[in-house]
Batch of 2 targets.
Target 1
Amino acid sequence: MERARKLRILVAKPGLDGHDRGARVVARAFRDAGFEVIYTGCHQTPEQIVSTAIQEDVDMIGLSILSGAHTYSFPKVIELLRENDADDISVIGGGIFPLEDIPKLKEIGIKELFEPGAKLGDIIEWVGHNIKPRTGVAQRTQFGVRAMD
Amino acid sequence: MGKKILSESALESIEKEYGEWLAEYRKALEKVPERLKRFSTVSDLEIKPLYTPLDIANKDFSEEIGFPGIYPFTRGVQGTMYRARLWTMRMFAGLGTSEDTNKRFHYLINHGETGLSTAFDFPTLMGYDTDSPLARGECGKCGVAIDTLEDMQRLFANINLEQVTASMTINPPASVIWAMYIANAENEGYSKNKLGGTIQNDCLKEFIAQKTLMLPPEPSLRLVTDTVEYGTKQVPRWNTISISGYHIREAGSTAVQELAFTIYDGITYVEEAIKRGLKVDEFAGRLSFFWNSHIDFFEEIAKMRASRRMWARIMKERFGAKDPRSMLMRFHTQTAGCSLTAQEPYNNVIRTTTEALAAILSGTQSLHTNSLDEVYMIPSEQAVLIALRTQQILGDEIGVTQVIDPLAGSYFVEALTDKMEEEANVYIRKLDEMGGMVAAIERDFPQMEIANAAFHYQKQVEAGEKIVIGVNKYKSGRPDLEFVLKLDEEIERMQIERTDRYRQSRDKAGFRKAMDELRRRCEGPPCWENNVMPALIEAVRAGATEQECCDLYRDVFGTYTDPGTF
């Protein structure tokens, strides 16, 4: 049975990039907006991020990156979610992206990208409109059992 | 004897006149009120409409302002400052492979740069070789990939290492990269005695802000102290730590937090070196600092002027330094990356210019100016040249370098300088009470103070209380800049192949022996006989890669991961 619950969001820092100012500010804004927020800290592999997302049964992953390594880590997160039948977890990104990468990232399934200058209020509003609490059945994956709603 | 700037009678009459002026000012505001509800610096320090001699009424000229090159060095570390020699123009550079970066170094030198500064890519910064699974997609992206001594040789090829000083922004693996630098310089025929340069090597601010993390705080400090000890005894012209506020500020701190946490990191390194048995006057002269020059012009000048006075007093009073060189805060400055906007990027030239001017008016020893496209990517040649030319124009054309510390005596600048010192000292007392910086880091104290300041600033921007042109006023989009650098994704594969070949070609027995000696020293108690530096130099000569040395560290000392608090 579907029941209303708070959105659960994983804010994650993929790769070796230590620029965490944006991730921490956005995580706090999500929390203040009433979402349940888990923040991974820096230096997470795509495998760790997807594993945490599944174990924590989140509705959305927000990837934050400033290093340019999104060309590897963003597609990898999408691929791992798919492999684990968890592609109903939405993925958004924040950071600096070369203009030509933006359509490519959206094409592979990144729902939205927030660039420098994005307002916290706008990000929260976008999430509120576009991300709904997931409902699902228990599934066994390489990372464990996904919780049932 | 104190030398008060103004007599009691002069102050009395100024106080009366100021009162009259203030009444007029308030009356005028009844007709046209102030533009803003509150005027404050970018760090949110409230600013009055006018400063007068009353704000520096208690100032003692000799004790607090004084002369350049003389304690407490408020006005500069050298007596002659820019009348004798301009600051070192040192552009932070690193991209792609060691060959790509060497080419950039030569480009900058050929256009008048006077010192080198090396940016490493994230795998190198974190102690991983390019072929580590953790390094996928990162090679050469935010700096140069250095895995081996051969990479180091290519990085500094055809550069005279006794004439040019090289700065290297490297922290947890600083000892390893420095060992590669020394081994390469000696291979090229240079003498350790004559090598000048800097390793950033400031592990404490990594936990606080920059987050290139490898080992827990205690062993990190042990390795830093090994490098200080080795430099003191063997590489006397080297700056073994660049105690850095830059990254603390970029993470969102206020100017006061940057000042206080950085100086407290400095205090911690001095304490550690003294514990090792070094005398303060033997090593303190080789400690250097690194400030962020942010967008708020006078606040930055006040911060940097205050920093020199604070450090001089701390070294003299807290540590009993006798040699004036131990009390000198020599510092590098970088303009604030976080002040740049992706919107209308050409405006970044103006931001960088004013930030560079603030650093120059503060008497910096060296300077990096950000490029207008640095907000997107490592700078292109076209953009980096504008940034370098910015320094050259400020140095040679506009006249500000003719006079030393031109803002001294400004009621506002002196009052703000005092305020910086006063507020930073509140933090320093608090950190003392907490039992020092390591204890404070373990309690997440500096990290959360910075996170709070960063969040507060973001809220102010969104409320329009702090203006960023192109972002929340005169809003604009992001253009497609014609010269943003593109890196070849193929370099990762090429670098992996050559690092692998390098490992295959070394003498296995010699490598094993060198690594065993490094391990023995790491496992032993910290002392000169167990100093890692001689063993590291042997290890990298014997073919050890950066990651192999760092893996040994991780194995002996354990690892540290970001607690991820927000």
Target 2
Amino acid sequence: MFKKLKLAAIAIGCVATLGINIAKAADLKLGALYPLSGGLALLGDESFRGVQIAVDERNAAGGVNGNKVVLVKADAVDANQAVGEARRLTSIENVSAIFGSYASGVASAATQVTELAGVPYFELGAVADTITERGFKYVFRSNSTAKNFAERSLEAIFKVVAPQLKADPKSLKIAIIFEDGAYGTLVSSFQKEAAKRLGLNVVESQSYSAKSVDLSSLVLRLKASGADIVLQTSYQNDTTLFVRQSANAGYKPKAMIGAGGGYSLTDTAKALGSAMDGAYNVDFPQSTMSEKGAPGLRAFTTAYEKQFGSPPRSGHSLVNYVGAKAFLEILANAKSNDKDKIREAVLAYKKELGSNAAGWGFNFAENGQNQLATTNLMQWQKGKLETVFPEGVATAKPIGPN
Amino acid sequence: MSIFIQLLINGLLLGGAYAIISISLTLIFGVVRVVNFAHGELLMVGLYATWLITSHTGLHPYATVIPVAILLFAIGALMQRFVIQPLLTAEPHIQIFATVGVSTALLNLALMMFGADVRTVDAKVGAAAFQVGPISIVTGQLVTFVVAIIVAVGVYLLLQRTFVGRGFRALAQNRSAAALMGVNVNKTYVLVFGLGAALLGLAATLLAVQYPVFPTVGQYFVLTAFVVVVLGGLGSLPGAVVGSLFIGLIDSLAGYYVGSDLKEVVYFVIFLVILTLRPTGLFGLGRGSE
Amino acid sequence: MFPRLTHPRAYVGGIALLMLLLIPLAVNSPFIYHLAVQVCVFGALATAWNIVGGYAGQLSLGHAVFYAIGSYSATMLVIHFGMSPWLGMFGGAVIAVIAALVIAYPTLRLRGPFFALATIAFLEVCRLLVVHFQSFTGGSAGLNVPLNIGVEWMIFREKWAYLLIAFGFLAFTLWVSWIIRYSRFGFYLIAVREREDAARAVGVNAVRVKISAAVISAALTSMLGSFHAMYLTFIEPSAAFSLELSIQIAMFALIGGLGTVAGPLLGTLLVLPAAELSRGWLSALGNGTHGFVYGVVLVIVVLFFPRGLVGHLGGKALALIDRLPGARRFESAAPTIVNSTSPASSSSGVRGKPILIAEGLHKRFGGLKATDDVSLTLHEGEILGVIGPNGAGKTTVFNQLSGFIEPDAGTVKVCQPDGQWRTPTSPENFAQAGVGRTFQIVQPFSGLSVLENIMLGAFMHTRNIAAAESVAREVAELTDLTPLLNASARELTVGGMKRLEVARALATRPRVLLLDEVLAGLNPTDVARAIEMIRRIRGTGVSVLMIEHLMQATMALSDRIIVLNAGQLLREGKPADVVNDPAVIEAYLGKGYLDAQGT
């Protein structure tokens, strides 16, 4: 009895979704592949929202060469699902290109599929450098990579933190801690490499599980090592845990520099209150920047608030918005769905720094990586994430420890 | 030296956090004999319930314990009655997968209802630490530890001194014999599951002051809780308590002396070694299964 | 070696399997190819898991560790040595086998949830180590498989090539699973799973059986992992060493039917495409919707099919299939050769020579001295009765005579056909030395038929199924079980089960048969039958040592009787003498009775 009902339900479901999927022939179908469930759901969803806003904006302005853009949403939590969804998007859904995907693992796996299938992949947020280092021709990335994050965080030590402390950067004790997943490992390994190159004194380098319930031993270790500056690459739970437990243990490093993730979320600051103030953060441009170096920013945040009822939860929506917007323009320029024409249009697309809402420019190298994507240095001041560097988009001056 | 003492204190207090979760798990495990993979998600439900109540009424999380415990009791009882009970005579493996299904459903339901946002419970009391000499102690952790001891004693008294508790113990030892002695098997199982879930609700209100709430939070606690329970011996109350403290201590000490990336390796390896030497856990009796 | 292709089960199964290959080829869509490849890979993974989880009954939730070893080995060999994954996968299999051995020994004594958690712990340890040694394994960032296109690299543009290879793996795994199921090894696995002690009593080396299952399963799983890595072209520790993956493949096997050949694949077919498709359709409705639906559907499926698809529908489906042409009844080819190696009958010449000698047995359990300096001798062709009040320690002595308990002091030696004495140690050793036994609480293998139960004993001397079957039939004649041969063991009456215990022990061709209260709980008719049966058994040359409470039976059957009381040997001698001995009467009935008798 139940089985018959189940079958009937499935049948109705099939028909219904087939109906949903009937798009008009002239529509431009683009896939959107993000982790929308599982552990990365929050920032995956935030990223997707940026793409949505870009697409809605484009459609309101007439679409791509007169064709309405239709987004086909796809959820992938790991490589396995990424491959499956990429196959689905490129065959059954027959999309002309795919936007993605925040998670490096998802991007790496999906792009292997799309490259072999000859479908362009527009990466808007994942940071693994290897995504654009495999010699692929149809993978393009608008955002900055883990290497940029690492270099900006060390630059912050030299240009901002050390001068504030009136100390020689090489005399400061640095600790690098990171969550043991792809994100933490990638950024921190570049940090370690660059630190060595620049002659900095790294006294501790420790990874931990992002799912940790307790980091008190790590805090004690850092305290014992006397680290002055802590570079942390983390998600929201571990950021909160670390900062709280440091405060509880009476460990107050002279500076903390995060690398996005939990350090960029307003939820984290709300949870930590004043303990978060003064913490630096290197990340994608945030929507709280100054409009001076980022034209169109206010319009974006207004559109976001209108659609989702609250301000952006992190900078990921902004970054995906800017990237998607650029790629949509490129698609319009290409005037074709042919992958090689699209590639040509991508390489030909050049914009100066400070020409869009993220403060970026666009100049794609042969490997598809945008050379003019930047990361900014921010600092939490009185519960707000202010951008303090570079000056073009700064909203406040960095405050030293007192 | 003070670092070592601090590590010990941290470890014991962390063990306290796991203790209530482990006691509830071993109670369900020991009596109903089901590996409840949804245990972490029940904790998550408790955390969300605590957050919902505190964010709407401004109450302190500790004050929400009664409604949350009652809610969790109901959910646990329903789960036992409608999901586990029909499968009591099936292969034990099948029961496990029913709980896996419940776990997935609950987790995604939370995602659907609340989104992936990380919520925190606003708690001035509980998250801060106070100093005892050179040692710092987090208030919330101490409270959790003390409550854990009270719960342990309470459950012990329940099992040993009350009629109902004796029924639990009888069922734990021999289901069919207990039934023959007049123990209403189904009703008792529902009661036990409900009670175990209610304990999780209690744990949730205590943990809410220290940990944020999001759909996958249950998975952060559940694997360790299982290790604790198996290590201590299935169905053994002292095993759950000792196991929690033991794992808490290892977590803390290994985290400092070995490194936070390998501390889990340390306690999993110790776990495997102990199981090799004592196949039914530290306090387990008998041959380690049904 | 291969299923008889003319049998309808074989050709219907074969055609159904081929559909998995032909339908995607006909539809020719990359997504359908992907689904089919996933079904093949996960179906094969579930089938390989079933060897440990189903046949051996060990719920392994850490199986992904073998999958990951295969993935990583093949990938790293490609990257660092340019080795083709076709070779690399064997390298991975070797490492997986080593890993299986490492984890198998410590977990052998674990059961149920303890075993499951130990496997999870092992999985996590391996994952953390792989993440830690990142310079070697790429760490959390994962490894990209170099996109070298070509058959030797297992990477193709054409999707059907992947499907062909995946299908090949699936067919191979199914074949291995089928061979195991219908071989002696398969019987042994089931026996060990159901009742390890009873299995050991018929000479099965339980440890070796369990480890063999683990090793085979690990090797298969690892090779599948190697292929899958080439298919996904990107691997990372959290996805490869994944607890979720382990749970998934176990679940497919369970839903389809544990311990069957086709079950795991059927379970995969039912769940996997639905899950993939629903993810595609339901994502649009909101984050988490598909996960929620999946969880709910899983619970519903488990509630409605607790015995798995094969368990519920298998009987009807098989009945339908068997009506097709080509089905011959399974037992028709009953060979008439009688297994001529029957050690029992060969040495029945000299009666009265000692065949089993126990000297100075002592056993203490904590404060209780259960066996206190017991010595006894069993002679060839003799029926020796062992009696004594409850708690005298009779079964303890029995257990020491069959290897289930190790005496604190003293020896037990068994005479072999060639005249040499042997001192066996473990239960299977005793069985192989020619000592068969029954259990006081009957231990039938309830999932098997009566015939199969008896065959388990016969397997001690032969690998051949047909030979074992013929021995079993012979023994069934001896024990009055012939009309019940095709019944399931669980349907027997108490009397039948007791005779089955005896039959199974007899099938091992023992020279000594230990009977533990074989007449308990039987009605008078059954008792009389049993007495006759024991006489017949002795007539074939088997020496019998029996514990009994039924005085009339003991008196009627025994040549000699031994009385045990409080762990000590009280009296020994001819039945009439022993039974009238005052000390014996006092032991059974107490001093009061003696006094009342006026003796």
